[in-house]
Amino acid sequence: MSATDQSTDVIKATRRGTAARGPRENIMSRTAAMVIMGVFTVYFLVPIWWLLVAGSKDTGSILTTNPLWFADFQMFQNIGDLFSYRNGIYFQWLRNSVLYAGLGGAVATFLAGMCGYALAKYRFRGREMIFNVVLGGVLVPATALALPLFLIFSKVSLTNTFWAVFLPSIVSPFGVYLTRIFAAASVPEEILEAARLDGSGEIRTFFRMSIRLMSPALITVFLFQFVTIWNNFFLPLIMLRDESLFPVTFGLYAWNTQLNQLPELRSLVLIGALVSIVPLIVAFLSLQRFWRNGLSAGAVK
Amino acid sequence: MKRTQTAAAATVALLSTLTLVACSSTSGSDSATSCQPAGEPVTLDFTTWIPGIEDVVDIWNKANPDIQVKVQTGPNGNGGTYKNFFNQIEAGNAPDLGQIEYDALPNFRVQDGLVDLGACTEVMAAKDQFVDWTWSQVTLGTDSSVYGIPQDSGPMALFYRKDLFEKNGIPVPTTWAEYADAAQKVRDLGGYITNFSQSDINQFAGFVWQAGGSWFSTSGDSWNVTLDSPESLKVAEYWQGLLDKDLVGTYPAWSDEWNNAYNSGEVWTWVSAVWGANSIASGAPDTAGNWAVAPEPQWTAGGTDAGDWGGSSTAVLKGSKHVYEAAKFALWLNTSPESLTALNKAANLYPATKEGLNLPALKEGVDFYGGQPIYDVFAEASKQVVPDFTWGPTMTQVYADGSDGFKNAVSGTGTLSSALKDVNASTIAALEAQSIPVAGG
Asked: Which CATH number among 1.10.3720.10, 3.40.50.880, 1.20.58.760, 1.10.540.10 corresponds to the domain A83-300?
């Protein structure tokens, strides 16, 4: 509570400060900026609005009524149908997605953080080569790796299992890159020296101290990886056969391709898409706070 | 001729045996080509995209404790499942059974992804249960080979707005010439008689099918490509004429505009397959009760030919160790009345068997069509489908190139006929690129 008050005060103070002393932009450029931002906001929000409206309709009125305004509000009934259809398979998909993206993102962040930190803070033979190889990994699209991965996983009989999607998800070359850059900039050598002099082991130093200094980067990596896994569609498409292992994106896609046979699925696909963006929104809103704090913490220095 | 075939068959058998030995994960080396019961309880994997099929498979599993079927559903064939089948066949872990549409079977056949069920006596004995043309869709022009069990079919008929035709005193067309006349009258009233599907050329294939044309045929091992056959061009010129006079709508198929055009009464008819009955009912709910179904318009007055649009088979995929059991299940799934009734109820599948056409569920009147027992029309149409239409091994490419050409024709650059000629050439090139022999190419 008091923390919020404080930060509001800070914002107010900053605003006042800007108004008093900051460079004044002319009204034209400010209006132009607002208009451009407004257009983009509308551009990004209209599809979500459409989805919200479509999710509240029954199958018949989705196609026949104004797509941008409510007709027969029965969103809750639709949600009920969605969760009861085929013994709640949708809920299972949602859980799978949260598991793949949440757990996978966390493990990926952890590994990338350790790797990036080691590359930034320790000198050893082949360090640059390893980093360059990882950097090369950023350039290879995940889609291109899906088929080779499938053949490898087939050899060890891991296709159509949880691991087939989870294991490839915990690798994040971009995360290594980002954490290395960030660790180099935000974890000062002096602090590490001090920790060593005080008798703290390297591992303890990492977990106790460095990881906190790196937290803005780690949050960023987690968010990126979370979204990447959540949206990764091709890998589950190739790896999974068993419906109970599908992530929500792939499951909805499968329903969508069955529309010709069962048009009634249309309303479930739409409400399913709407419900499936809720976890993403929650993840962003709840982590955004850490993100901003972290960035400003770095900036003060 | 006969001898080369036998030699070829022997080579194929030998090669597949070698492959199996090379993979060495299979137990009996010739289990893939013979059709013997395993003599022990088996579990089969079955991949399909029919919504609600789990309940149907449950019926089987309860009655057959020794042949348990694990069903997996995913996206439809072209939505990824075919690609997965190919990958899995490559990796040696394909499911025992897979759903494959008729137009994709030749592709799997050419890539050697299917088990020939010709050795299974039960399968060969079931031939007469199926509507003739569906059986020829799975034998792929051979006498003694069967590459899948026909599952469902999509015989075509004319869906039309009964109320509008009656109100305006326009007779329901029985020939394509009458259809064109009616198109003019409907246009004068501000509507379109139908919508020409530019993006989905499957419907066009159904028209060619009805006209007695075929896009492919085989002679021995080599393929003839006849996308620009006289029948095919006749159909193309007919629709080009309607397009030129602006007598048909050109909304992209399955889009919201397309549904709206039907729902608002702007478009009056749709020549479509039996499953189209539900597409209209869900896409144009405001027009409930105003539709009816009549036989497809004919090229010659008094003719009785129908086309087909869609339909799939249950195939046994390469690498299955339990061909006998898989074939037994596939036969039950696609011929037994209890299964056909359940499939029809769950996913509106229209059976491919003669008996199946008479299911009690398919005798009832349908409210959306003013209580007309519409499936009687389709049962009649199913018997009238021309039996010789053959699909090619590169249909994905044909569809893609075809819809590109058709889109150009609809937007006024080029014609449907020139598009077909182009696709014919590009298809021959595609076959040759895959080293598939082309006759006279």
From this structure: 1.10.3720.10
